[in-house]
Amino acid sequence: MPTSFIINNCRVVTPEAVLNDAALRVEQGRIVEIGSAPLHGGREIDARGNYLFPGFVDIHSDAIEKGIEPRPNTFFPIDIAIFELDKKIAACGITTMFHSLSFAELEVGLRSNSTAAGIIRQMSGFRHKLKVNTGIHARFEITDLGAVPHLEGLIRENLIQLFSFMDHSPGQGQFRDIMAYKSYYGPVYGKSDREMDDIIDRKMLTREGESRQAIDRLAALCREYGIPIASHDDDSAEKIAWLKAQGIGLTEFPVNVEALHAAKEHGIKVCLGSPNVVRGQSQARNLSARDAISRGYGDILCSDYSPMTMLHAVLTLEQLAILPLPEAVNMVSRNPALAVGIADRTGSLEVGKEADLLLVDHSDDFPRILKTFVKGREVFSTC
Question: What b-and-e string marks burial along 335-352, b requiring 16 or more CB atoms within 10 Å of the CB?
């Protein structure tokens, strides 16, 4: 498929502005010119006045876990789940996806250590066949000490591109009381109250014991291999200060304004969920992403559990006059690319970058992605 072409008559969304009546030239999969329309010389695509966005960079998506296990204890083959999800995320405008796999043996669902490690290794074998750029975001539940050797091996094999620490112990973070934790996990996975109590007891014992040594060990290894590190569900200024001391530059889904403010003070980037923006509230009834962004907090949006929400979150922020369109687009493209160290090649419409592009129709009240390109290769089209 040709990777050299011109897109004429488009509205190019750069990191700073929207360029009307513009054109963009791609050669050998890279952007080589952005100028006034029309450009000529080669295959031409008429955008008919539609927007041209950079492809979305999604650094946290649990969709693969649901693709493999759509219902409790109901599993599909990993290759089928990944290839089918790959097609869906291309249609959602995601051109770089960090699939999130959790190492959380003491939780329920598809989060055992051997399962997560096996999925990552299997994905590495056919990643080159996928339509979108694909990386792995390994999430370490700090109470799961059995995960440490698995994660050390994956890091040394260069199979992880983003690493995060998470702590789902009740009493802090996402689950500020035990009943919230039980209500979230128990009914979905058919666990009795006693079974949930056993899980909680084991988590709390480990958290108060050897977790800190495991955190220090894995953080040091990530730094040695140049892997960016994030933290999950931070809920206090003290936790944010600890991130700063550890050299961790990203906090995902901080649960209150105290943590948001501390992150801004310490120069730590904040990742929020695009489903939260679209719905106007947190699934866990924590912080509203709309409110956070309105107050000047928040740098990145990720799809969390719903890839379809990325485009709609961007346009929700613009329509509600929370952010100008270029700044809203940066939250799903340039900013996440910067956070994970790939902004030199993707994440914005700039000369020299890979041609990861979205042609977006927003002529009526419901936006549609018309075409998705990855490195200049068309991987999705409705026209």
Answer: bbbbbbebbeebbbbeee
Q: 240-259 as b/e, with b when 16 or more CB fall inside 10 Å?
A: beebeebebbbbbbbbbebb
User: What span, in angstroms and rounded, lies between the C-alpha atoms of 289 and 279?
Assistant: 10
Measured in whole angstroms, the distance separating CA 275 from the mean position of its chain's CA atoms is 12
Mind listing the domains of the chain with CATH numbers?
A: 5-53+349-381 (2.30.40.10), 56-339 (3.20.20.140)
Give the confidence band of 335 by pLDDT, cuts at 50, 70, 90. Answer: very high
**CA pair distance 312, 92, nearest whole angstrom:** 10
Measured between alpha carbons, how far is residue 327 from residues 212, 261, 262, 268, 274 in Å? 37, 20, 22, 18, 14
pLDDT in tens, 353-375: 999 999 999 988 789 999 999 99
Residue ranges with strand state E in 104-257: 133-141, 162-166, 229-232, 250-252
Q: What are phi and psi of 371, to 5 degrees?
A: -145, 145
Q: Is 333:93 a contact under the CB 8 Å cutoff?
A: no
Residues 193-203 as b/e (b if ≥16 CB within 10 A, e otherwise) read eeebeebbeeb
Residue 261 identity: H
Instruction: For residue 322, give Cα distances in angstroms to 119, 255, 297, 326, 339.
Output: 39, 20, 11, 12, 22
